[in-house]
Amino acid sequence: MSEKELYDKLKIVVKEKALKYTKQRELILGTIYNSKIHLNAEQIHKKLTISNKDDQVGIATVYRNLLFLEETGLVLSISLDNSLKRYEINRHKHHDHLVCIHCGKIVEFINQNIEKEQEIIAKKHNFKLLSHTMHLYGECKACSKIDRV
Amino acid sequence: MSEKELYDKLKIVVKEKALKYTKQRELILGTIYNSKIHLNAEQIHKKLTISNKDDQVGIATVYRNLLFLEETGLVLSISLDNSLKRYEINRHKHHDHLVCIHCGKIVEFINQNIEKEQEIIAKKHNFKLLSHTMHLYGECKACSKIDRV
DNA sequence: ATCGATGCAAAAGTTTTGCATATAC
DNA sequence: GTATATGCAAAACTTTTGCATCGAT
Q1: pLDDT in tens, A21-78
Q2: Exposure of B93 by Cβ count < 10 A (0-12 exposed, 13-18 middle, 19+ buried)?
Q3: What is the CATH number of the domain that holds A118?
Q4: CB-CB neighbors (< 8 A) of B122 in chain A
């Protein structure tokens, strides 16, 4: 999905709800889209503060729009152990996360065997499975080469 | 593991580190042990405030000891989506969590097929797997019977 | 012109820290 | 007696909210 396609989606969502398409909304969504890493609220705000000297975005607006974007399904959040919520664009391809505990690198993956097992587990315990999160924590190749105390 | 065995473990850990065995440490650990549900810091503090009218435990002491107990491996914490860290006694039986999104009920489970797949995934991406969390969110049997708007 | 969105600052909620005192050893 | 642990209050950090104003429609 291109950046423009994403903004078009936002425009549709906003119109459907009879809300307004603002520069700030677009900037926040664009910041998430253009980041190689999963940013948290404060990091998004900082990026905007640096890149948009002229047109400042308040931290409250960032929080309000992150809630909004998550509600609409345009973005997803992940809560890793010991860190704040981080945000990613919802590409509607479900995936789980493999995280390097040293450098924070995140690899997205999906495994159908695990997805199937999860359904079986839920069924066994009489739960209707609605969603799940799976986070694998480890040491990536690059970080394994660095000596640590 | 009985409550007494748990306190004995705490005594050993404390002695090893040349630290002190205090009533507060025991009370906090005991509160986690005796709770049927996974409590967060504030809930632990509240329980102690109610049950120990005579011998009050400060919230700072709760936080300091939760960190300490986690460091020593006596307790584990879980970070569920949209909620504060919750604590459980470390029974050294690794497990994952199935959570009811309505009532908060938590079922612990372990599935060897998934554990194996996780290793394979990490290897494929050149990660050394160190730990993981898996949280399945759903609706438990009891809650499925309640009409919701 | 209207009503939602924004920025600011204040408030709320959660966790950490400094310091004097208490207490385990 | 000594050093760690505690309680309290203050501070730090993260997120939410109230309100006047701005701006999209």
Answers
A1: 999 999 999 999 999 999 999 999 999 999 877 778 999 999 999 999 999 999 999 9
A2: exposed
A3: 3.30.1490.190
A4: 98, 136, 138
Could you tell me the residue range of the domain that residue B15 belongs to?
Answer: 1-92
Contact assessment for residue B133 and residue B98, using Cβ atoms and an 8 Å cutoff: no
Which of B130, B133, B138 is the closest to A129 by Cβ? B138
Chain B CB contacts of A115 below 8 Å = none
* Same structural domain, A71 and A54: yes
Per DSSP bridges, beta strands B128-139 and B96-100 are: parallel
> What pLDDT score was predicted for residue B149?
61
- Residue B127 and residue B77 in one domain: no
Count of domains in chain A?
2
The CATH number for A11's domain is: 1.10.10.10
B108 and B75 part of one domain: no
Enter the tokens of residue B49.
Answer: 């405030």
Residues A83 and A115 in one domain: no
Report the mean per-residue pLDDT for chain B.
Answer: 94
pLDDT band for position A149 (50/70/90)?
low
* Residue B146 in this model has a pLDDT that exceeds 90: no
To test the contact with chain A by mutation, choose from B86, B101, B110, B121 the residue with the greatest count of A C-beta atoms within 10 A, namely B121
Same domain, residue pair B69 and B99: no
Element (H, E) at A27: helix A23-34
User: Which one has a higher pLDDT value, B136 or B148?
Assistant: B136
Which nucleotide, over all strands, has the C1' atom closest to the CA of B21? C24
Q: Is B128 helix (H, G, I), strand (E, B) or coil?
A: strand
Contacts of B140 in chain A (CB under 8 A): 125-127
Q: What is the CA radius of gyration of chain B?
A: 18
pTM over 0.90: no
Query: Which one of A80, A114, A140 has the shortest CB-CB distance to B126?
Result: A140
- Do both B4 and B20 map to the same domain? yes
Nearest residue to nucleotide D23 when comparing alpha carbons to its C1'? A22
